Each structure stands twice: as structure tokens, then as C-alpha cells.
């Protein structure tokens, strides 16, 4: 399940492999991208940089051309040497970018569009993102204000809103609330300033801990290694996510799960460590 930490790692690895190289081949399964390539070829362009913005990944080519992709739930980018056997099915290929040393393959990526600097500013959802939790110069005061502006919303839904803070997905949503002892269904209006400070600090800390350098060239969107606890046991990587009915690692109470709007996403919490209040629906 790609979240901001996953996209950050993918962008970093792609940048390391591709930045400064010339595109020697470009292939896509998407007709709109292919038509752009036919009229404005990607082959021959220099790859200037690769960056992440929240859950979006952007590849910048010379001549003001930007490939913008979003993984949604199951997409992934992979890096291979020329001639190396792919570890993903060929029929899942959506984009291939080839250079002399590497080929980058977008597998099952559902959103892929070309932009210029102007069209990206005018029509993309990316400029509307809130402060990016993994970027330097994070605007904490702005993030607090954006959270407070959603006073009538449940906090777990607000954490998922990329216009509030960019990068948090469903796993981190539940984990951040647990770390701060905050019931995920509480309304923002019921939270203290200390509660909101904890949510922001924990979000930054937990996500930063999951973007450490990894070895090897293959990049996948979710490796199963995301960790929010400090426990060495690989089976104890997370506090509550997907642990419905199991004992809380802190107090032993059974973890609960409930579907939460929008999108009826699964939300997990410990009823003992994360008590409800009068704003929390029963």
C-alpha cells in the first residue's frame, strides 16, 4: 500500500539511477502518453531529476516535460539493468524509460500524465497538496492551521487528506493516532494543541524512520517492512494496523477495527490506550 514514505524511497532510487542520463528508449501502454511521445519525443532528452510530492512521483526531462505518476493502491516502479529479467508481468507494464545503464519500469501504475511547468501549476492536484511531511522546511504552523480548519471532521479522515498534510496513508493514519493515544474517530474540535502537536511530530518521525537507504536496485511500492514500533521482532512491526482482535502490544486489550468514511477505509485502534470522548461516534 504506497504511502508517502514509499514514494519518497522510490523517487530517491529513481533519481540516483536516472538523473543526468539521456533517455535511449521510451515505451508506454497508455495512448495519451504515446501520442505525446510521438509528437514530442522523450527519447534523446536528459533526465534532470526525480522527486516525490506526497504520494505523487515526478520525473523531469529536459525541454520542460514532466512525467507525473500516482501509484494509488497497487502501482510500483522498478529499476533493472539492460537485459535483466523483469520481476513483474509484462502485461502490467505501463511505462518504460531506458537509459544506457538502467531501465525504469512502471508496473500497474494507474495514473501517468505528461505535464509542462505551466500545465502542472494550472491543472494538476499536486500544487494543492498540504505541507509534505518528508520534505525539509516542513511548514508546521501551516499544517496545524489546516488541521484546525477541519474542526467538524474526524481526525483520522483529516490525516488522510493530502490537502492538509501530504504523505499519510491508511497504515500511518491508524499508527499515528495510536502513538498519540488519540481515538481516530474523535472530532478535530475536541483535540488540544498538545494533541495536534503530537500527531504532527509523530507523523514526521514515523515516516522519516521508514525512508532509510536500502540496498539493491529493485524498487517496489510496498515491501511489507514498514515499521512503526521500535521492536526487533519482525512480527511486531506495527502497533494496531491489521491487528483486529489481537492483543494491544501495550495493554493487552483487543484491537478494534471499523470502516471509516470517506472510502470506507479500515481504521484500527486500542479502546484502552485511545479512549473516546463525547465527540466520538459510538
Strand and helix map with partners:
Layout: H1 4-18, E1 25-28, H2 31-39, E2 47-53, E3 56-61, E4 65-70, E5 76-80, E6 93-98, E7 103-107, E8 111-115, H3 117-123, H4 140-148, H5 155-160, H6 170-179, H7 193-208, E9 256-260, E10 265-269
Helix pairs in contact: 6-7
CA radius of gyration is 20 Å
What is the helical fraction, as a range of percent?
25-40%
Low-confidence stretches: 215-224
Overall geometric form: elongated
Got a strand count? 10
Distance between the termini: 29 Å
CATH class of the largest domain: Mainly Alpha
Number of helices: 7
Largest sheet: 4 strands, antiparallel
Order of strands, main sheet, comes to 1-6-7-5
Mean pLDDT: 91
Order of helices and strands: HEHEEEEEEEHHHHHEE
Strand pairing plus helix content: what structural class?
alpha+beta
**CATH fold-level label of the largest domain:** Helicase, Ruva Protein, domain 3
Number of domains: 2
Tell me the fraction of residues in β-strands, as a range.
Answer: 15-25%
CATH architecture of the largest domain: Orthogonal Bundle
Q: What characteristics describe this protein?
A:
single chain; 282 residues; alpha+beta; N-terminal domain of MutM-like DNA repair proteins; Helicase, Ruva Protein, domain 3; 2 domains; 4-stranded antiparallel β-sheet; 7 helices; 10 strands; 26% helix
Describe it for me?
The structure is a single chain. This protein has 282 residues and is an alpha+beta fold. The protein has two domains: 4-128, N-terminal domain of MutM-like DNA repair proteins; 140-269, Helicase, Ruva Protein, domain 3. The chain has helices at 4-18, 31-39, 117-123, 140-148, 155-160, 170-179, 193-208; strands at residues 25-28, 47-53, 56-61, 65-70, 76-80, 93-98, 103-107, 111-115, 256-260, 265-269. A four-stranded antiparallel β-sheet has the order 1-6-7-5. The protein is elongated and about 60 Å long. The two termini are 29 Å apart. Residues 215-224 have low confidence and may be disordered.
Amino acid at each position: 500500500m504506497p504511502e508517502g514514505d514509499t514514494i519518497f524511497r522510490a523517487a530517491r532510487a529513481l533519481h540516483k539511477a536516472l538523473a543526468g542520463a539521456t533517455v535511449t528508449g521510451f515505451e508506454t501502454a497508455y495512448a495519451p502518453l504515446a501520442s505525446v511521445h510521438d509528437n514530442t519525443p522523450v527519447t534523446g532528452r536528459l533526465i534532470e531529476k526525480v522527486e516525490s510530492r506526497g504520494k505523487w512521483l515526478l520525473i523531469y526531462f529536459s525541454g520542460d516535460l514532466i512525467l507525473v505518476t500516482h501509484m494509488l493502491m497497487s502501482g510500483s516502479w522498478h529499476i533493472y539493468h539492460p537485459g535483466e529479467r523483469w520481476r513483474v508481468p509484462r502485461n502490467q507494464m505501463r511505462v518504460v524509460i531506458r537509459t544506457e545503464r538502467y531501465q525504469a519500469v512502471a508496473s500497474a501504475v494507474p495514473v501517468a500524465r505528461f505535464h509542462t511547468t505551466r500545465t502542472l501549476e494550472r491543472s494538476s492536484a499536486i500544487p494543492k497538496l498540504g505541507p509534505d511531511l518528508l520534505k525539509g522546511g516542513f511548514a508546521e504552523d501551516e499544517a496545524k492551521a489546516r488541521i484546525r480548519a477541519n474542526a467538524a471532521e474526524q481526525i483520522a479522515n483529516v490525516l488522510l487528506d493530502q490537502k492538509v498534510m501530504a504523505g499519510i496513508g491508511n497504515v500511518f493514519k491508524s499508527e499515528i493516532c495510536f502513538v498519540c493515544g488519540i481515538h481516530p474517530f474523535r472530532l478535530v474540535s475536541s483535540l488540544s494543541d498538545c494533541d495536534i502537536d503530537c500527531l504532527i511530530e509523530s507523523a514526521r518521525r514515523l515516516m522519516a524512520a521508514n525512508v532509510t537507504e536500502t540496498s539493491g536496485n529493485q524498487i517496489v511500492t510496498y515491501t511489507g517492512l514498514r515499521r512503526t514500533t521500535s521492536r526487533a521482532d519482525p512480527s511486531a512491526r506495527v502497533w494496531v494496523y491489521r491487528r483486529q482482535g489481537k492483543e494491544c502490544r501495550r495493554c493487552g486489550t483487543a484491537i478494534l477495527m471499523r470502516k471509516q468514511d470517506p472510502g470506507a477505509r479500515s481504521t484500527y485502534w486500542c479502546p484502552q490506550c485511545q479512549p473516546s470522548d463525547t465527540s466520538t461516534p459510538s
